[in-house]
Amino acid sequence: MKFYNSLSKNLEVFITDNTVKIYSCGPTVYDYAHIGNMRTFLFEDLLIRTLKYFSYPVKHVRNLTDIDDKTINKSQEQKTSLKDFTEKYAKEFFKDLAQLNFDETSTTYLRATEYIDPMINLIEELIEKSFAYDKGDGVYFKTSSFKEYGNFAGLDLENLQEGAAGVEGDYQKEDFGDFVLWKKYKESDGDVFWDSPWGKGRPGWHTECAAMVRNSFLEGLDIHTGGIDLLFPHHTNEKAHCECLSHQPMATYWLHATHLLVDNKKMSKSLGNFYTIRDLLDKGFDHRNIRFYLQTGAHYRSPLNFTLEGLKGTTSALKRLDNFIYEISETPQEGDRYFLKEKFDNALQEDLNISAAMGEIFSLVNAYYGGKIFDTNAILLELKEIDKVLGVLKFPKENILDEETQKLFDLRVIARAEKNWAESDRLRDELLTHGVEVRDTKDATNIRKL
């Protein structure tokens, strides 16, 4: 398997000795996640599913940013506690993931508010080793103290100007390139603050992720993921926190997803081209279609130009696949081996080239409807394996849930994702009254019609 490593700017063979350790930057829970966010998260789901498909054990951590200017300001505006405010949008995020059929069995979620002590400890260590300093309005990382700073993003530190992308202004730092680790309390923060050796305040965004990575992966990361917009300053600054202290790479591979456009423009509420998952569901689109389009519409390192017409086209493509699977399920035939899985796997191993992999599936479908005779039993078995990556295919003989029980099952997936065990148990018992038995294992949830 090969990945494009943002660190080396090269396609590299993926090598690991043990469980694949992955950290992903999650959402800032101040609003509903939009489809640009979701494209990045679906790329990460594709990565995790692919690794597991090729028999790699995976440990994945994703953070929820529940402390930053947006969460604090909006919670104060609404006169709501930070916890209640952010929990509302965290629940909506988990609901989106459940609807889009994310594989969450290897993922742990960390909230920044639960890791304040490790963040303070990290800042203390940086100050002690002269990588940071305390000023009147906060504590800052001294970028000039770490000679490798900026190499990742190709920065020219000598000519870096205040106001450049990611460069924080309006602070009492010593150099333009320095970034905040701890923000001192302001009256506008209301009741949101924590005590620290530097007075009450809150951590900076970059420090939050750096501390959570260090706390979760003492032996270091294999893969760090996120959107390409995070490479600088966020990932550059995270990396600096960890590497100036450990003198070891924070992660061996850095994978970044490219931007999503809408109608060839940057998505913006002012342009009327801003969509969340619930917006698309309200327009009558199915969650399968949304997942399929956002994940397979373009390679993760290529821009995806989202259009409603394109999403409609995906609906037609999935219907064609559904019809094909139904036909070969109902009327099996003997014939030539197509070796679909081998072709699919070869494409997928080249930096998660899901577009090329899907091209192999549709080439098969076109050949079948063009009159070619294939071993359909072998194809059906291979498609069931392939769907461990795709998560969208329908196999008619295995669909044992009607509309009502499917809704109950989906609600239970959400409850388990939120660790609401009481609600999860209640929904399990309710499904049993409908003749559906649900059994949870370490790796999956299995269902059986009684």
Beta-strand percentage range = 15-25%
Give the mean pLDDT.
92
CATH superfamily of the largest domain: HUPs
Q: Write the element-wise H/E pattern from the N-terminal end onward.
A: EEEHEHHEHEEEEHEHEEEHHEHHHHHHEE
Class derived from helix and strand content: alpha/beta
Radius of gyration: 24 Å
CATH top-level class of the largest domain: Alpha Beta
* Portion in helices: 40-55%
Q: Unreliable stretches, pLDDT < 50, 5 or more residues?
A: 163-167
- Corresponding CATH architecture of the largest domain: 3-Layer(aba) Sandwich
The CATH topology annotation of the largest domain reads as Rossmann fold
Helices, by number, come to 14
Largest sheet, in brief, is:
5 strands, parallel
- Total individual domains: 3
Question: Secondary structure elements and their pairing?
Answer:
Elements: E1 2-5, E2 10-13, E3 20-24, H1 35-53, E4 58-64, H2 69-77, H3 82-99, E5 107-111, H4 116-128, E6 132-135, E7 138-141, E8 179-184, E9 201-203, H5 205-216, E10 221-227, H6 231-246, E11 251-257, E12 260-262, E13 265-266, H7 277-282, H8 287-296, E14 304-306, H9 308-330, H10 340-348, H11 354-369, H12 376-390, H13 403-417, H14 421-433, E15 436-440, E16 445-449
Parallel strand pairs: 3-4, 3-10, 4-5, 10-11, 12-14
Antiparallel strand pairs: 1-2, 6-7, 7-8, 8-9, 12-13, 15-16
Helix pairs in contact: 1-12, 3-13, 4-5, 5-6, 8-9, 10-11, 13-14
